[in-house]
Amino acid sequence: MVKQDIVIIRYGHREVRDFRVTSHCALVSRALGASKIIICGTPDETVEKTIKGVNARWGGKFEVKFSEGWLSTVKKLKKKGYKIAHLTMYGIPIQRIEKELEKITKLAIIIGSQKVERAVYENADYNISVASQPHSEIAALAIVLDRIQQGKELEKEQKGAGLKVVPQSKGKKVIDLK
Amino acid sequence: MVKQDIVIIRYGHREVRDFRVTSHCALVSRALGASKIIICGTPDETVEKTIKGVNARWGGKFEVKFSEGWLSTVKKLKKKGYKIAHLTMYGIPIQRIEKELEKITKLAIIIGSQKVERAVYENADYNISVASQPHSEIAALAIVLDRIQQGKELEKEQKGAGLKVVPQSKGKKVIDLK
């Protein structure tokens, strides 16, 4: 497996209304190997606070950034050599394209909400679907991250963690590392 | 691959507050091969309505049911021969246990929210984690469904669909089948 940098772009975040769903997106991005989420739309400190708290306890340096415009974000990332993948139920099935995506060392993944403007499809290098059915950008993101990293993200340690789970068949065991 | 029936149990749904997250759970369950979601907590017609609308357009017979108590639901399912898997960040990593789960023909998967009482861990045949990090029950469910069905769920047709996506590298193409 090549070493990848994966950045998530959250398209069209609306404060308050989208807090929980965007928080899920950010937590999934962090837990499943991405380095950063860039939230386009209303800046929302609650999401940033949630992630900072999780980093402090569970480790890692996952970042939350805000951007007013998705297009300027995409253009900047393209200049830095990132390929752009957009998750949409209308795209090419992930199972047909995952081998190609595995090889990309700098990948930005756009996740939208219900309405995504046409320019997103056009500016993406890849439009990718998970199941060609309406469901959830959180689920689609999780499956794409799991597949393009071939499951290696599940074994990754979060550096500098204060707490660490010791897997149990029943109940909870957490070690305090600090 | 054995033919599996997979039922999802949503633990602790609170009306209004949880509508969007539970809707995501239901849509993911439907799109990724489960036959039913049983929502434990406040009955919420909006989730049911959402799914009925999706079934009408995109096909399939995915069901939404409500239950006042998760424990009676679990007991009933156990009597019918279902094994119970509970998704929790404290459980056994999915990658260690997926081969065993693939063989189970009747599986019920419990997904909780932040606080799940101890009895859930104790009544589950399997407590399963995805990444041993805090993130999202929607993401954990998606990855577990994808892995235990070995990706076959992504190829599944929804019977009786009125609409069908034709995957595109740019843009949207939908065929009207009715």
Task: Please provide a brief summary of the model.
Chain A has 178 residues and is of the alpha/beta class.
Task: Describe the model.
2 copies of one chain form a homodimer. The first copy, chain A, is built from 6 helices and 8 strands. With 178 residues, chain A is an alpha/beta fold. Chain A has a single domain, classed as SPOUT methyltransferase, trefoil knot domain (Alpha/beta knot, 3-Layer(aba) Sandwich), CATH 3.40.1280.10. Chain A has a 6-stranded parallel sheet with strand order 3-2-1-5-4-6, sandwiched between helices. In chain A, a hairpin with an 8-residue loop joins strand 7 (163-165) and strand 8 (174-176). In chain A, helix 1 packs parallel to helix 2 and helix 1 runs parallel beside helix 6 (137-148). The longest helix of chain A has 14 residues, at 45-58. The first copy, chain A, starts with a strand and ends with a strand. The model of chain A has no long low-confidence stretch (mean pLDDT 94). At the A-B interface, helix 1, strand 4, helix 5, strand 6 and helix 6 of A face helix 1, strand 4, helix 5, strand 6 and helix 6 of B.
Question: What is the alpha-carbon Rg of chain A in Å?
Answer: 16 Å
Structural class of chain A: alpha/beta
Low-confidence stretches of chain A: none
Oligomer: homodimer
In percent, how much strand structure appears in the residues of chain A? 25-35%
Amount of helix of chain A: 25-40%
- The CATH superfamily of chain A appears as SPOUT methyltransferase, trefoil knot domain
Q: What's the count of strands of chain A? A: 8
User: Helix and strand string of chain A, N-terminal first?
Assistant: EHEHEHEHEHEHEE
